[in-house]
Amino acid sequence: MEGSRPTQPESQGTNVTNAAKTKSPMQQDSLPGNSGPTPAKDDFPKISQADFRGASRRELLKLAPVLALGAFALPSVQDFLLRKGLGVSDWASALLFRRGHLAPTFADTELTPLEKFPINDYDVDDPGIIFESWSLAVTGLVQRAGSYKLEQIQTLPRQRQNTRHVCVEGWDVIGRFGGTPLSNFLDMIGADTSARFIAVNCADDYYETLDMATALHPQTLLCWEMYDRPLTREHGAPLRLNVPTKIGYKQAKYLTNLKVTNVIEKAGYWEDQGYSHYYGL
């Protein structure tokens, strides 16, 4: 019939199959279901076990950054890694801190004018302290706990210093601060200076802690002056911390309570939100 294919004998198909089987693997033609010649066993490249292990390690090292980025995408893992990273950073900073190493000081001609010194608060510029009734409550590992009026604190030797104030937001200014070294006040209250921390609370509900080494640093002040004048309300009156060896958020304003302790429940307002505790400069 026109257009029809001649019927192949059954034996012919069998011969084709047998012929294919007699060829070497690399000589076989592409058959239905095959994508190409099938290599013989001896044709695969040989690699030693040691080379294979080395190549596997190299590939894993290449993947490590990708895996790390993938881990950071998981909120729980991200928080864990960030906390561990801050912990290592704080540990290293504490080891490197030198009690006798002074922050740079500056000439009066280099001062930022008081009116250009930024007012930077976490909540309010003036928490409404009544100065006449204000006192600093002292508790913890001290011999003479109690409340101290500003006039009592001002009987301690006064120190004035022109130092740089550095804000975590990226700006810095040079200011003139006056007060007494915190170490003088700790001596007045009979503080146990082998304790680990000084914790302070503020009238605007801010709170902060200093490690004892920083508290005893000769430039850490209980500050009641700026630019040889009493602190203004906006800059932390009647009493604030000035800590030129640390970042700005360590320098709490509007102090109301001071505690000497070995255990702190809260490290600081910003530290409890993920910032460094030992943010040294």
Written description of the protein model:
The protein has 281 residues and is an alpha+beta fold. It has two domains: 49-94, no CATH class; 100-273, Sulfite Oxidase, Chain A, domain 2. It has six helices and ten strands. The protein has helices at residues 10-22, 49-72, 75-96, 150-153, 182-188, 212-215, and strands spanning 136-140, 146-148, 159-166, 172-181, 197-202, 207-211, 221-226, 229-230, 240-242, 255-261. It has a five-stranded mixed β-sheet with strand order 2-1-10-5-6. Strands 3, 4, 7, 8 and 9 form a five-stranded antiparallel β-sheet that branches. Strand 1 and strand 2 form a beta hairpin. It is globular.
Number of domains: 2
Alpha plus pi helix count: 6
CATH level 1 name of the largest domain: Alpha Beta
Radius of gyration: 37 Å
Number of strands: 10
State the strand order across the main sheet: 2-1-10-5-6
**CATH architectural designation of the largest domain:** Alpha-Beta Complex
Stated plainly, the CATH topology of the largest domain is called Sulfite Oxidase, Chain A, domain 2
Structural class: alpha+beta
Strand content: 15-25%
Produce the secondary structure layout.
Elements (H helix, E strand, L loop, with lengths): L9 H13 L26 H24 L2 H22 L39 E5 L5 E3 L1 H4 L5 E8 L5 E10 H7 L8 E6 L4 E5 H4 L5 E6 L2 E2 L9 E3 L12 E7 L20
Parallel strand pairs: 1-10
Antiparallel strand pairs: 1-2, 3-4, 4-7, 5-6, 5-10, 7-8, 7-9
Give the tags.
alpha+beta, Sulfite Oxidase, Chain A, domain 2, 6 helices, 20% strand, globular
